Amino acid sequence: MDRANDPRYNFDADPSLDEIIAQQGKGPITDMSVLHGDFWPKEESIEDFLAALHEWRGHKRADPAA
Fold first, then answer.
1. For residue 51, with 0-12 CB atoms within 10 Å meaning exposed, 13-18 middle and 19 or more buried, which class applies?
2. What is the pTM of this model?
3. For 59, what's the count of Cα atoms within 13 Å in the CB-facing half-sphere?
């Protein structure tokens, strides 16, 4: 692919939002269920989720500098 002649790689290009949407082949979300994440078991409580989130972020480390 010759990037020199490809408008997607033109540093000076100033496409409108509609042009960007057309280039990416995307459009408005009509089905909100596509935004629903399925990463946490339904039987787990919100407290369990928040505890895991804090652990993932490193808030439960014995040495905060680690």
1. middle
2. 0.35
3. 8
Tell me the C-alpha to C-alpha distance, in Å, between residue 65 and each of 58, 59, 61, 62.
10, 11, 9, 9
- What is the residue whose two structure tokens read 């339904």? 42
What is the secondary structure of 10-50 as a DSSP string? Answer: -TT----HHHHHHHHT------GGGG----S-TTS-HHHHH
pLDDT digits (tens, 9 = 90+) for 33-47: 888 877 778 888 999
Residue tagged 């972020």 (tokens): 57
C-beta separation of 52 from 46 below 8 A: no
Residue that the structure tokens 């949407």 belong to: 21
